[in-house]
Design brief:
400 residues, seven-stranded mixed sheet, Selenocysteine lyase/cysteine desulfurase, PyrdxlP-dep_Trfase_major, PyrdxlP-dep_Trfase_small, PyrdxlP-dep_Trfase
């Protein structure tokens, strides 16, 4: 008797967004506004995982509907669609730090060169480069500036010095939400013979990235932000050009071809992106991620991005009506889903930690970063959630 395949759940296309929040239980009696931090699980993902567990209970690793090669191919395919790259350039890791460290320790940089990262960058894109300082390679920070154009000028000035080996950049600043023009950044790097590395955690699924046009050597990002995936899962991209002669610093059980046959020991390594998967993986997380990507694909990746901008726009309008000033006021024509509140027309009213605590008491989750109150909505946020946040902030402002 052959194994029975489970009928996998489909996700409705939602021609309008009304009611989609019902798939995110966290929104039932609260408002989660930290989707650029961590994302709660959807009922679609839990349903998919439940089906997997049922099959795994019956068939073990031979669960017929969830074969590892099939799920891996699907995840790679979805990510390749988002990044406009080849699926073979995609590998799966645990987080951004792991991916960045594996890459950073596996490459060569000449002594006397420099690595540039963004001012106030997230530690996952700073710490993995620090070991180079002991090897005679500089690690320096580029000032963000007040606008994306000012940043590009600062970057151009640094690259023109001619000694920058790598620019490792987050296309979206995690604290302010500022979005950088990656087409210009890529061209500047190519002109000055600088490798472009991307920390994509705040960008992938949030802003358009076309690695078919951008000249990116390497990218690492977390699954649990704009892609609504599980904590503890990340993705790497290694370009075909960068893959030539690339060999990871570590060798694990799964680093070599035909790794399921343990003897004789092998010297032939897997293709470069596959090398990042060192050994047995947390397949539960793969199922979760697969479900989230399948859901986003059904809705349309670009359509999801536009909805994020649309909801962010609702918040911006509401916040302006209440007298708040925003980081994005300095770049109003740049689309971003991260809303960084920088002040209020009554300066005494803008106390980010106090506002955050007031919101939390009313089950509204926001974050404080670099003295800003940060909000980051996603498709689970509907108009009634925006209205609830606005009324709560109005209540806060009315206090003596």
């Amino acid at each position: 008797m052959s194994p029975n395949h489970t009928e996998l759940p489909s996700f409705p296309p939602f021609h309008s967004w009304k009611g989609i929040s019902l798939y995110f239980p966290v929104q039932n009696d609260s408002v989660w506004l930290n989707y650029c931090g961590t994302t709660p699980v959807s009922t679609y993902a839990t349903q998919m995982m439940n089906l997997y567990f049922q099959e795994y209970a019956r068939f073990g690793i031979f669960a017929p509907s969830f074969a590892e090669p099939t799920i891996k191919a699907a995840i790679r395919g979805y990510i390749a669609e988002i990044l406009h790259c080849d699926p073979s350039e995609i590998g799966i890791v645990h987080n951004t730090s792991e991916g960045m460290n594996l890459y950073s320790h596996s490459i060569q940089i000449p002594k006397g060169k420099r690595i540039l990262v963004l001012e106030n960058e997230y530690p996952s894109n700073v710490y993995p480069w620090e070991h180079w300082k002991e090897k005679g390679v500089g690690l320096e920070f580029i000032p963000v500036g007040k606008t994306p154009d000012e940043f590009l000028l600062n970057l151009k000035n640094e690259l023109e010095k001619g000694d920058v080996s790598i620019l490792s950049l987050s296309p979206v600043h995690w604290c302010t939400g500022v979005v950088f023009d990656m087409d210009v950044v890529s061209k500047l790097c190519e002109t000055h013979h600088t490798k472009l590395v991307i920390d994509g955690s705040q960008a992938v699924g949030h802003i358009p990235l076309d690695f078919g046009k951008l000249k990116v050597a390497f990218c690492a990002f977390a699954a649990w932000k704009w892609l609504l995936g599980p904590l503890g899962l990340g993705v790497v991209y290694l370009s075909k050009e960068e893959s030539k002669g690339f060999q990871l610093i570590f060798k694990g059980q799964a680093s070599v071809v035909n790794d399921s046959s343990y003897f004789p020991y092998r010297d032939e390594w897997k293709p470069a992106a596959d090398q990042f998967e060192q050994s047995t993986i947390n397949f539960n997380d793969w199922i979760y991620f697969y479900a989230s990507l399948k859901m986003l694909s059904t809705l349309g990746f670009s359509r999801v991005r536009e909805r994020i901008y649309e909801v962010a726009g609702m918040f911006k309008d509401a916040l302006h009506e209440l007298g708040f000033t925003l980081e994005s006021d300095a770049f109003p024509n740049v689309k971003t889903g991260i809303i960084a509140i920088t002040g209020h027309k009554n300066p005494s009213k803008f106390q980010p930690e106090a506002i955050q605590a007031f919101l939390k008491q009313r089950k509204i989750t926001a974050a404080v970063r670099l003295g800003r109150l940060r909000m980051a909505p996603h498709i689970a946020i509907e108009e009634e959630h925006v209205a609830r946040v606005k009324e709560t902030l109005k209540e806060y402002l009315s206090q003596s």
